[in-house]
Automatic annotation (TrEMBL):
Protein name from the UniProt record: ABC3 transporter permease C-terminal domain-containing protein
Record's keyword terms, sorted: Cell membrane, Membrane, Transmembrane, Transmembrane helix
Species, as recorded: Cellulomonas flavigena (strain ATCC 482 / DSM 20109 / BCRC 11376 / JCM 18109 / NBRC 3775 / NCIMB 8073 / NRS 134)
GO cellular component: plasma membrane
ABC3 transporter permease C-terminal domain span: 800-909
InterPro entries the UniProt entry points to: ABC3_permease_C
Transmembrane portions of the chain: 27-47, 329-352, 372-395, 407-435, 456-475, 495-517, 538-562, 794-817, 847-870, 890-911
Organism phylogeny: Bacteria, Bacillati, Actinomycetota, Actinomycetes, Micrococcales
Subcellular location(s) of the protein: Cell membrane
Membrane topology: Multi-pass membrane protein
Family matches, as Pfam families: FtsX
Amino acid sequence: MTVLATRTRATTGAALLLPRRRARQDAGLLLGTALLLAGALLALLAAPRLLDRTADEALRTAVAHAGADAGVTLRGASPSDAAPPGAPFDELVQQARWIDAEVDLMLPATAVGRSAPYRTVLDGRSAFADGGPDGVVLATRLVTVSTPSDPADPVRWVAGRVPEAADPGTPEDPRPPTVQVGLHVDAARELGVDPTLAPVRLRIGTRTSYQTVDVTGLYEAVDPQDPHWARVPELLGPVATPTSEETPLLVGLYVVPDAVSDMARVMGTGRLPGSALALPDVDRITTADVPSLRRDVVSFLTTEKGASSGLPAVLDAFAAHLGAARAQAALVLAGLGATAACCLVLAAALLVERRRTHLAGERARGASLASVALRGAVESLPLAALAAAVAWTAVTVWLPRAAAGTWLPVTVTLVAAAAPAVLAARAAGAAWAGRRVPADRRERARLAGLQAARRLLVELVAVAVAVLALVSLRGRGLVPATGASADPLLTSTPFLLAVAASFAVVRVAPAVVRAVGRWTTRTRGLAGPLAATRAQRAATSLLPLVSVTVAVALMVLCGVLVQNVRDGQQVAADRLVGADVRVDGALESDRAAAALDALRAAPGVTAVATGAQLTERTIGRDLDLAATVLVVDAPELARVRQAVGLPVDPRLDALRVPGGLGPDDLVPVLVDPDLLPRLGRTQDLLLQVYTRHVDTEVVGTTALTPDSGAPPVDARAAGASVTGDDGVAVVDAATLAPVAEKMPPVTRAWVAGPGAAQAVADAGLADLPGVTVTTRDGWYEQWSRAPIPGALTALLLAAVGALALLAVVALALVVVATSGERGRTLSTLRTLGLDARTARWATLGELAPLVVGGLLGGAVIGLALPVLVGDALGLAWVTAAPGSVPVEPVLWPVLLAAATLAVALLVAVLVEQAVRRREDLGEVLRVGAR
């Protein structure tokens, strides 16, 4: 037999027999280790897939909330341009077909042609069925709709007959024909129109010129929920007109595609004005489709004249929102995986400790370290593979969609498989390695110095890596810029900091324990000195300390993130709404002005302020600077913000000049702090309002920010204050009015007070066309229940519970692993009269450095890390708060971690005491402690 064969046989001999026997002896510990590994892998594999599934729902919700803004629109040419050959509606229909061909994942594109609103009289009488004022009281619009890829009729005719094309008549007849149209059943009921027996004639036109149309049938929408109807709401019933007081209602008159030529003749044009629109198919879109969909839309927008879409902005905001949530989830999962790996190593160490005598015997009988490691691997590898297979199968069956980033579960599995073999070989090697100590004192000192230097070098390297990871996290940010997975180095930052903190605790703890030990020698009883003596070893055990520190750090970090996400969403609501209720839209009409006046006198309303926003206004003299100008009711806005507890600019109410400006007075203005130093002066600054400029002076700075109107309930809200201008300027509307050539129309209003929401609802502002009402509490409630923020909060809270459980497991494993040696000492002391109470305090004191050191180190990391990295965590995209989101430390996660460790330590001590109580002291006196 060759040497190689002999060594191979010696290494692999009994490789299956011994592990099988030992597995039966330690079946409980092995089963617990397998369950721990399977549970950790379930969490690490399922969490990303659950987040991805939630992301699909969130994407669909975001696109649905965007409405028509997320559609792809292709506008037709101007009606004044030369008409192309063919029917007047063919160009729009062809544009709809082109959108269908070029952009995927969209609903069938719909072409819409419509006229301007006409004043309308119904048979020379009031248009209302119940009477009402005589004369023109109704506005109508001729509308035709066609979906080329879906030839089905979008309406269902329920009364009368289907409209038809008019008789072409004499070709030389210049008079336009009478157009036959359909009317929605709701509009017909409102107007008292019944074409069942005969068509009902309407006169449409201006004050001096009218045409006639015949309502021949009534219809209802086949699918009223079809999003394309949002473009032509007048076809589903009467709607309020935006500004007209003379014609408060607008009704759509549906022209069938066969009669579009009649419609064009009535309008006096060779081509119908309108556009083609395709909306995203929200039922088909997934997060995997976002890159290709965005690429198709951007390509279409750049190649087609007249094309527009807000879908790229929606997708970009969603991608940033999802990237921030994924990055924070990866940070938490990395810490959870590291904590689970530490617990698995502790379990392997406990297994080796139970077999230390057998391993020493094997080594004494000539077993090689390779054979010892092989027998350990034969036992641990199948166990780890089985646990991993069970976890992967369960997750795949439950969540079949694959998720990227499996390096963390693989790493934890490899740790669980390799730790028993490595620790077994290490224990066997140390059992008979021997230790030679030089007789020369100087040589011993030199060797001790070398060992201390090696240890210091390892510690410095660990600290350096942790600091580099922290600096990299602060500089690069946790959220990847390219949409890829988060950098493993960045997500491992809490673990690396915990390792560095554990090294620091190990360095400091012995001195602290010695100081406490000197104090305990002056106390009565044996518990203090005994605990201080045994605590020396526990204070320098690195792996248990790292396990507890990582668990506590991640518990505190998750708690801080949960609290700051919730607080950040409230900050977002405050910044976006700016009051208890915000109203956006066309507020210049008499009805809107009357409603606002009623609000000011309504009970429960503290203050009402209105404003307008102008972008790309020049500011300064001979400076290439542009500002966003906020024209507001300054004193009223100050009262609104003060009433709701928002910060108020110190000089905001001073923008209103009592009695108006004098001949030589300048308009006072506030500018943001970033713009002020770039202006170079504060007096005699030119500010553009429209085409003319006014002379202004800067009287202070402002924290007010621009916005894009009504705050969206999606991630686009995080970029609502971005305008592309160089800064913000705030002026008072009443002060500006006398010196400006014209004032911007009022487009927003802020209402404060305990009864603001009810007062706005009673005023009917939400019923005005083009007006959106947003309440601060309503926006917060809706966004806090959004899919991704809700899923991230649930993940963080679940991680807090899982980490608390792992901390308990780690502490229990440490107590069990050290119970043998501690039990022998306590059993011997019991024979000398040691009572159970003193034994309990001795055990608590022995484990106190581990618990206190892990708690302090983990709490410092968990509280300091979010504050140090700040915006690098991407909280602004998770909370949708414009600007920077302040990170505030909170105390309750620290208290929760302390309570968890205290309860775990108390339970472990009581259980150990109960076990020791059953020991026979007579047996201990006869054969000694075992």
